[in-house]
Amino acid sequence: MTTLPTLFLSHGGPNIVTDDSEARDFLKGLSGLLPRPKAIVIASAHFETGGVSVVTDPNPDMIYDFGGFAPELYQMVYPAPGAPEMAERVFERLDAAGLEPSRITQRGYDHGTWTPLLLAYPQADIPVLQVSIDPDRDARWHFAVGRALAGLREEDILVIGSGHITHNLRAVFSAMRGGMAPDPAMAGMVAAFTDWFAQHLAAGDIETLLNWKRAAPFVRENHPSDEHLMPIFFALGAAGANAKGERVHASRQFGFFAFDAYLFG
Fold first, then answer.
1. Residue 169, pLDDT score
2. Which CDD domains does this UniProt record tie to the protein (predicted)?
3. Residue 6 pLDDT more than 80?
4. Which letter does DSSP use for residue 12 in this model?
5. Does position 182 have pLDDT exceeding 70, yes or no?
6. CB-CB contact of 108 with 60 (8 Å)
7. Which has the closest alpha carbon to 5: 29, 33, 39?
8. 56 vs 5, 104, 162, CA distance in Å?
9. Helix (H) or strand (E) holding 175
């Protein structure tokens, strides 16, 4: 039995599957960085509920939660099985931690789940269990959700938080309309923010990280809303006591939209 690390992935738009990029190449090689897990537990920024929910669906369908992309993306299917038995064990762990979880009996894979997994594990033969985030809860709460599941990594279960290290879509759309010219000011704010996270994750400075909204630079410029950063705290909590983070990928789109990924353990 192997004690697996946990992961935080910046999943990008659904076109990460089809468009050449450094982030796509990283995800395609991700399985080579890790022992093969027997199951995957993933919290996607696109799966939002009040409180924490666990999906018990044995055969999740697909959710194409995007518009305006290439038609082929709406035909893609990731047929990995769900994990209803493991869902009950995860539910029990969350309940024992006082987190008052709920069950969702039917829910498909949103693009925060299926796009990175399609690239990393294209055979779709590893069971996948989805756990929600709550956009109205803070970093400390999501860290506690992850911490309740920390023992899973000792059972050959890979725990993933799928969000984005930066997520200012207004700046992204502006860059697209402007011919994708780099914005030096935005690039500088992204670099300061992502380097702050890299520094404090490498040091295992948990308390400072949980207070990121007061301590990190250029918070609003990088995250006008919080939901895409909450999976990093889920993954950090799931790595257990004294966890530290190694930045295993860093690339940029438009010169500023960051695709950082981390291994915790």
1. 83
2. 45_DOPA_Dioxygenase
3. yes
4. -
5. no
6. yes
7. 33
8. 24, 6, 19
9. helix 169-177
